[in-house]
Design a protein that fits this description.
The chain has about 325 residues and is an alpha/beta fold. It is about 45% helix and about 15% strand. Helix 1 crosses helix 2.
Length: about 325
């Protein structure tokens, strides 16, 4: 294992002990290595020992090779069996290049660095924008030559161990196929209050609602690829109620009529949760994956995308 002292890439001042662990994980995962994100780096504080780093690497290798990635492969193959994608589509998804590197932050007590700042603040040169529901998961950013760069940053919860399902499995899927747009985190505190109302029209959506709109695509992609089930009214992380899910699908279909959101809407019934193996999960996931192919290159954007951008995807 090669460890070098480097500054945190977004802040460029705080030194850390950095290790590129993708080659190690690729060796551990064998023929499943093609499902790994292209960039996986541990960034550890100086009170983290080599034994700590090597232990995390070993446990990640076991979890990904024996449990997580085989599950992804089975579920991606099922998309083909349901005639939602061709084999070539799955190959393209597996070969996707998420420009958002995955940084696994190791601090003695867990949690993340306190680096407040939002992309909407013109004075913020860098920052870490945590998820409101999982504050040990975040998107870090910096300004670089007039543009944003962003990183997906994951740690364990303060004073707790690593949660393999959430901290590693879920975040690995984000890093591979469900990149988290910077603008969706920047408005996430407001966006969680945003509710897609019955009959909502694109022209009336706020920036927070557009941020939530994009956030839903990346979350739906991840849960469909992994087969997650959440303790919400839909069984999904977002949208959390069936009414909002149906409104979201109607809005998405109106903007992108050829992406399959109408088929998903037909399968979503009121007041029932969606099981990971339910056909509705795969229909929703297939439509979201089609959007993520276009949304992924935009993950470092600071301002939300609007109706014109989404409409352009169907032209």
């Amino acid at each position: 294992m090669f460890i070098e002292v480097l500054p945190l890439p977004w802040e460029r001042r705080t030194p850390c002990r950095a290790a590129d662990i993708r080659p190690y994980l690729a060796n551990r995962c064998g023929d499943l290595a093609y499902l790994l994100p292209r960039s996986i780096t541990i960034a550890a504080s100086f009170d983290i020992t080599n034994t700590d780093i090597e232990g995390l690497m070993d446990n990640m290798g076991t979890f990904l090779a024996d449990s997580e990635l085989p599950k992804w492969r089975r579920r991606l193959e099922h998309f083909v069996q349901l005639h939602l994608f061709h084999d070539s589509d799955i190959e393209s998804i597996a070969d996707s290049d998420n420009p958002q590197p995955w940084i696994i932050r190791m601090l003695k007590d867990g949690g993340l660095d306190d680096m407040p700042g939002t992309p909407s603040d013109p004075n913020a040169q860098y920052g870490i924008v945590p998820c409101t529901t999982m504050p040990n998961h975040a998107v870090a950013f910096c300004h670089d030559a007039g543009r944003f760069k962003s990183w997906l940053v994951t740690s364990r919860k303060p004073r707790q161990g690593w949660n393999w399902d959430s901290d590693i499995g879920h975040e690995c899927a984000h890093a591979k196929v469900g990149g988290v747009p910077l603008f969706s985190q920047g408005v996430n505190a407001d966006a969680r209050l945003a509710f897609f109302q019955e009959g909502c029209r694109p022209e009336g959506l706020s920036s927070s609602e557009w941020g939530r709109f994009a956030y839903c695509f990346c979350e739906l992609t991840v849960v469909a690829a992994r087969g997650e089930r959440r303790a919400t009214g839909t069984g999904l992380p977002a949208p959390e109620t069936t009414r909002e899910l149906r409104n979201f699908l109607r809005l998405a279909h109106g903007l992108m009529p050829h992406f399959g959101f109408d088929d998903a809407l037909e399968e979503v019934r009121m007041d029932r949760t969606i099981d990971p193996d339910d056909p509705a999960m795969f229909l929703i996931g297939a439509a979201a994956l089609r959007v993520m192919r276009h949304l992924t290159p935009m993950v470092s954007r600071g301002e939300p995308l609007n109706a014109d951008w989404y409409r352009s995807l169907s032209r």
